[in-house]
Design brief:
By secondary structure, the protein is mainly β. Helix content is 0%, strand content 48%. The chain has two domains: 1-96, no CATH class; 98-180.
Amino acid sequence: MNKKIIFVGIPKEPQKFGLFYCFNRRFTLYQCDLEGESLAELTSGQVESVRLPMHDELRNSIIFLGNSAGGSHFKAANLYQLSLSDNTIKMVIDSKTKRGDFPGLYVYQGPQIQIENGKIFLNTFYSLQKVVTMVDIDAKSCTQLNEGELEKSFKLFEVSNNVLLGVRSARNEVPKLVWG
């Protein structure tokens, strides 16, 4: 069996540390075998700053967020899909494409990203609230799931059998566990 490890790493040059708050640094997706041999860069030259990689449900591809390196520390991210069969990368969501009044994917950190039935569920910021957004990989579309409730913030915990579990809060409301 061909067992590989896929991870985010820092290229040798220029070497600047700090992934936790600095999403604008150069980070590359790497792959190696379990012995640490056969190290290969998977995104070098295509995506400058990679973060939050995860397998799709069938383990045929890696879904990840990416930005350009440099500039602002918390800019909108693009969503990419790396095919493991031929190592091609396609952009699923381009942060520069206008979608109504949706500002783009401002994803802070995992594990706020879940994949189920070809859909990606994630938390992103919209105005000053954290909202749950569903990305359809095939249609390359974003849908805000708590539309009309922008005065409330939602934090996604888990998605299972098309049921989302999270917490909803507002300035005038005690945080509540919600599902649906």
